């Protein structure tokens, strides 16, 4: 499968997650305060709730339900109650288009 356009880079609000779904896979797309764009699995590994409804701080996305934070760079759960990581997807930028292939995750 190839990367698919999910949004425009200029349309992403800083520190505001955007939920997208590609081929049945929910993904949270985030432009952090440095302007870097990340894509991680949108389901908290602790409570099975949407991470895109959570809070961005630096390079982390915090689950709104129970407070577990996940690294936007590695997907690692940074605090309890979650301990399992979420997948991190490769993001490609083509002009102003943000492209993600839901079958390609980052090696961390």
TrEMBL record:
Q: Does the keyword Acyltransferase apply?
A: no
Q: Which UniProt keywords apply?
A: 2Fe-2S, Iron, Iron-sulfur, Metal-binding
What PROSITE patterns does the record tag this protein with? RIESKE
InterPro entries from the UniProt entry: Rieske_2Fe-2S, Rieske_2Fe-2S_sf
Q: Does the keyword Cytoplasm apply?
A: no
Report any Pfam family annotated for this entry.
Rieske
UniProt xrefs under Gene3D superfamilies? Rieske [2Fe-2S] iron-sulphur domain
Domain Rieske: start-end pairs? 4-100
Under the heading PANTHER family, the entry gives: 3-PHENYLPROPIONATE_CINNAMIC ACID DIOXYGENASE FERREDOXIN SUBUNIT (PTHR21496:SF23), FERREDOXIN-RELATED (PTHR21496)
> What's the protein called, per UniProt?
Non-heme iron oxygenase ferredoxin subunit
Instruction: Give the source species.
Output: Microbacterium soli
The opening ranks of the lineage are: Bacteria, Bacillati, Actinomycetota, Actinomycetes, Micrococcales
